[in-house]
Amino acid sequence: HIVFAGKRWRVDDIHPEGKSIHVSPTKGGVPPKFGGEGMRLHDRIRQEMFSIYKSGSYGIGQGSLEYLDGVAQQLFSEGLNTFNELRLFEEYIIETGRTVTILPWRGDKIVATLAALLMQRGLKASTFAGTIEVEDVALDKVRELLRELSKAEACGVQELAQLVPDTRKEKFDEFLPQDLVDVGYGARFFDIAGTRTWLNEKFN
């Protein structure tokens, strides 16, 4: 999924040669009022986000320092209410209709790796804002596959990169052989070891 022109879209098809994509509207929350790809988030950032929501306080030093304006306080309150209503302090998989959402509370590399591993097993998985959305599947099926992944042999980043339609992202990638490009892409966007640690925490 992507945010474009203030709306949320699902990518249906990608044409690397013409540098174009085909999209269709999809449901989702209100997109943020800013654009750009931005930096990839580290594990520590999302772990701190989880810790703040779990404690119910964003203050610094025992909650004594107030640093959010009125709008930010309202957004935090809404997020905290949802966090508690969905029991996200103990649940990391939620189901809405035929869509299952996984919340690893980890950085973008682990989120991308988990999504790629699920895609490798035939599921329609996509990442959005630190979550993984899996369409047309039951929650128990996703949980079963994650349990299988925790016991499976680790694959390489190059193998996962081959699931990506276009891995040529760097300036001189067009001059490199595809296997080398895939290795470089995988090293930048995936984290096999960190993902296995997360899976072992959940299932072992």
Number of helices: 7
Radius of gyration: 18 Å
Number of strands: 7
Cα(first) to Cα(last) distance is: 31 Å
Return residue spans where pLDDT drops below 50 for at least 5 consecutive residues. Answer: 29-36
User: Which range best describes the helical content: under 10%, 10-25%, 25-40%, 40-55%, 55-70% or over 70%?
Assistant: 40-55%
How do the SSEs run, as a string of H and E?
A: EEEHHEEHEEHHHH
| Major sheet strand order | 4-5-7-6
Q: Helix/strand/pairing class, anyone?
A: alpha+beta
Shape: globular
Mean pLDDT: 86
> How is the main sheet built?
4 strands, antiparallel
**How much strand content do the residues show?**
15-25%
Describe the overall structure.
The protein is α+β, with helices and mostly antiparallel strands and about 200 residues long. The protein has helices at about 45-55, 70-85, 110-120, 140-150, 155-160, 180-190, 190-204, and strands spanning about 1-5, 5-15, 20-25, 95, 100, 125-130, 130-135. The strands form 2 sheets. Strands 4-5-7-6 form a 4-stranded antiparallel β-sheet, with helices on one face. A 3-stranded antiparallel β-sheet has the order 1-2-3, with no helix packed on it. A hairpin with a 4-residue loop joins strand 2 and strand 3. Helix 4 (about 140-150) crosses helix 7 (about 190-204). Mean pLDDT is about 85; it is low at about 30-35.
What secondary-structure arrangement, pairings included, does this model have?
Blueprint: E1 2-4, E2 7-15, E3 20-25, H1 43-55, H2 70-85, E4 93-96, E5 99-102, H3 108-120, E6 124-128, E7 131-135, H4 139-151, H5 157-161, H6 178-189, H7 192-203
Antiparallel strand pairs: 1-2, 2-3, 4-5, 5-7, 6-7
Helix pairs in contact: 4-7
